[in-house]
Amino acid sequence: MSAPATASAARPASRSRLRDGALLALVLGAAILWFAPAGMGRYGTYVLSLWLVMSIAVMGLNLTLGYAGQTSLAQAAFMGLGAYATAILTTTYGVNWYAAFALSGLLTFCIGILLGFPALRVRTHYLAFVTLAFSTLIWLLLRNEQWLTGGVFGIANIRRPGFFGLRLDGALAFHRFLVAVTFILALALWWLVRSPWGRAFMALRENPVRAASLGVDTRAYTLLAFAIGSAYGGFAGALYAPLVEFIDPSPFSLSQSLFLLLMVVAGGSGYLLGPFIGALLGVVLPEWLRFAGSLYLIIFASIVLILLIICPQGVSGLAERGWQALRRGRPAGGAP
Amino acid sequence: MKSPWIMAAALAIGCALPALAQDKVKLVDVIELSGAGASAGTNFKNGADLAAADINAKGGILGKPVEVIHYDTQTNPGATRAAVQRAIDEDAYAILGPVFSGPISASMQISQRAEVAQIVAGEAAGFTQQGNPYIFRTSLSQSAAMPKIAKYLKDTVKAGSVAVVWVNNDFGKGGRDAILPELEKAGIKVAADIATEQGQADFAADAIKVKNANADAIFVYLNEDESARFLRAAKQQGVAKPMIGETTLLGAKVIELAGDAANGVKGHVGLSVDAPLPGLQDFGKRFQQKYGYVSDHNGIKGYMAVHMVKWATEKQKKLDRKGLADTLRGATITVAEEPGILIDTTILKNGDLDRESFLAEVVDGKQVINTVLPKLNP
Amino acid sequence: MAEFVAFLIAGVATGAIYALAAIGFTLVWQTSQTINFAQGEFVMLPAVLVLLAVKLLGAPLWLGALVGILAFILVFGLGFKVVVVDPMIRHGVLPLAIATMALSTIMKEGAKDGFSAEAQNFPSFVPTGTVEVLGAAVSLQHAAIIVVALAAIGLLQWFVGGTRLGRQMQATAQNPTVARILGIPVERMVLLTFVINAALAVVASVLISPLYLAKFSNGETIGLFAFIAAIVGGFNQVRGALVGGLLIGVVDSLAAAYVSTQYRLAVPLILLVAIILLKPEGLMGRKEERRI
């Protein structure tokens, strides 16, 4: 938009500083969340837990979209694959949850690679359309193959994992477990984005032709970004199933995939903390708005719409603009 | 960049509202107000609100006013669990709803752990078969209703073959899974087994399929709007065989929407505001006055659910949460004792119900009850 | 064979509905690269507004229709363009697409809370009754929809190719920068397409609602099918919407008949994937030039 030259020159430095700030925020946030639910009751704890789980799914989508520039409309389907894989493995086959968690990630990673191939043929919105079809096909499978997935009746009594003999059945114990898992997954992503791979992803997003001419193997990196993002969806699903202790196909429908995409964009795609803000908007805000009674969803959607109109880069973009304006000591948007 | 975390903490604290004092009878209605179940859920909500208004106009329960709070499930298990968790944290005296079996399955363990009665509107057979002593129905389960349909098809319609049209959600699939073995037992052949989508708009292809199946009768098990659309499409395609339904197909809303196409539809009705019982008819009138449309069976369920709480609380003479469930289990509530129950109802040990039901027919745009079927164990 | 023809004709009749909903989709994409995820709600809402106007004003149907339709075009033609699209269009396709998702929730929930959670009958100006086509029954309502969809596309083609205003609009769609240099009022042209889109949504709504009833959730299915139809037919061609709509309608009907009712929805989606892999620009579309 405005000020292309100066802004892009100033960007790398301020961005890397922002990322270090992001690491600090991650550590602090994890510490706060570890103790936060103390006086909160099971409902508040549950909502925070749900927020963390959705954050993981949104983080994955953020890698695909925000760092590698690929639009996926199937993140909820990957979440569903992970949730069902974990639920079936742990309830029917008695597999240990940790193994099921790893297998869910592996499964969604592999399917991500398979689905990513069309991305090599057709870019931008056409990949979105392929993932749209994939998302609905997965939903149909989950609903129709009752012998495996329980069909419309879903799978009940999904057990929560333990931790070295420690039981995590209680709301607070499981919440702390989620804090730890989310922290590790966020840290892994933080490392990935800073690594040469992460830079290649970003080069891909900014300008694929230039990235290719600079020697970035665009095919491999596109696939990798998409597959890792999908695996995060699978991880989120593997945590969602024991959190809710019940799954059916409805939370993994196309509209939920769109909703996850909304969280990425509203939180700020391409920012490490964006997914947390996005999931906060998507999960916690509607719960908090329940005091408004029947109008709460309209109010929620209006807030998102107004937010996007004011700042299409999402909350993180808004925060970055504000931060830079503060540092320069002049109002935002007053660039050249 | 710490702001989101602080905001999260602030929001979360906002969520954890303090428990209210026991000067009211606080019922939390966890119900489908958006998503696929919104029509059914809105009916249930309105029924429960009407019941609370009626009870409060007569002095409440044990002198305390009833308060019904509605939390939307979004027809989504994760959100339902949050809502039920919140209800428990807020010391709800009892939980009403939800309607869909997914949301019910996602929340019933929580009310069980907290030993709070949950009075649901679901009809699928599964959730009362898991030994949960805190779950109660407000309608007959499909495993009770479908044998009646099979018997009706065999004895009254004298059908040798049936085409089954069902909606592919927990309601429709549950009904379909319940009726197929009953049809087999009755020696009726299934000529076509047709799944349709929830919210499906166009039924032309399904109607042609039904027509070509050439069965003696058609059993239609869809939600209200889809029932109306199917009846219209079937009429347009010239399907002339008898249409048999269970409760929804004969509902007032279907008759209104389908117009002529609904005439001649027959079947079994669990709850209806046209039933030959003064309580139900009076409820139907007052519901229509208040909300401007005719209540479907879910509206009746909402009204009953609140009155089940009233009856049991007055019976045990105290606001004891666990006692409420204990009192309801195995009880028989009669209209003479509690007019708000609308129809004599026996609650079985597992939360299923036993009560009279009806065989009805749509004649000239009006539901006419032909036969009153007795309780299974009178 | 007679059976096959019956399914085919039912599919064409349904497909015309998808086509009608998909035209506006392709139109706003061409001039402003807007993917409107609320397109289904755009088709759902006018009928609800008409009924609401009748109820609130206690007015006769024609007056209610006038008020409801004008209100819709004003808010969701002009208002949508000025309030939502204009501030966001410079930031790429995605934020705007996401904003239309939020808009679809507002429209859906608004229709539910402001009007009714129940389906309502919507009056038809087409007489009831059926016509026989090759031995299959087609309602007059369906027949009218096919005729109107064809007429709408014909009119649009004529408008774009045969009038000065239309050619300016097309130039805007093809290359806004050049169009601006040539002195075409680009902004006004884009605005025009949004008004046309809203008007088409009204036409679709008034024709479809007597069949599908007026209900807040109706946009979900119609929106998805219109979207698929637009992609299959070719996002950048108005006649692509017609071809895509009819094709999807027929495929859907045949899938229900011969594949599996449970997996009925899968067949149009597999077709969608096949088209994207083999001919990404759609059946009728032309290749897009790459913009770097």
Describe the 3D structure.
- The complex is a heterotrimer of chains A (about 325), B (about 375) and C (about 290).
- Chain A is mainly alpha-helical and about 325 residues long.
- Chain A has a domain of about 230 residues.
- In chain A, about 75% of the residues lie in helices and about 0% in strands.
- Chain A contains 14 helices and four strands.
- Chain A has a two-stranded antiparallel ribbon with strand order 1-4.
- Chain B folds into two domains: about 190 residues, Response regulator (Rossmann fold); about 140 residues, Response regulator (Rossmann fold, 3-Layer(aba) Sandwich).
- In chain B, helix 3 packs parallel to helix 4.
- With about 290 residues, chain C is an all-alpha fold.
- Chain C has a two-stranded antiparallel sheet with strand order 1-2.
- Chain C is built from eleven helices and two strands; from the N terminus they run ααααββααααααα.
- In chain C, strand 1 and strand 2 form a beta hairpin.
- The chains are: A mainly alpha (about 325), B alpha/beta (about 375), C mainly alpha (about 290).
- Chains A and B meet through helix 1, helix 2, helix 10, strand 4 and helix 12 of A and helix 1, strand 2, helix 3, helix 4 and helix 6 of B.
Short description:
The complex is a heterotrimer of chains A (336), B (378) and C (292). Chain B has 378 residues and is of the alpha/beta class.
- Kindly report the spatial arrangement of strands forming the biggest sheet of chain C: 1-2
Instruction: Specify the biggest β-sheet of chain A.
Output: 2 strands, antiparallel
Query: DSSP helix count of chain A?
Result: 14
Indicate the structural class of chain C: mainly alpha
**End-to-end separation of chain C:** 52 Å
CATH architecture of chain C: Orthogonal Bundle
Total E-strand runs of chain A? 4
Query: In what range is the share of β-strand residues of chain C?
Result: under 5%
Count helical runs of chain C. Answer: 11
Quaternary structure of the protein:
heterotrimer
| Average of pLDDT of chain C | 90
Largest protein-protein interface: A-B, 54 and 45 residues
Mean pLDDT across all amino acids of chain A: 87
What's the CATH first level of chain C? Mainly Alpha
List low-pLDDT spans of chain A.
1-13, 331-336
Summarize the biggest pleated sheet of chain C. 2 strands, antiparallel
Please name the CATH topology of chain C: ABC transporter involved in vitamin B12 uptake, BtuC
Organism (chain A): Bosea minatitlanensis
Keywords (chain A): Cell membrane, Membrane, Transmembrane, Transmembrane helix
Membrane topology (chain A): Multi-pass membrane protein
Subcellular location (chain A): Cell membrane
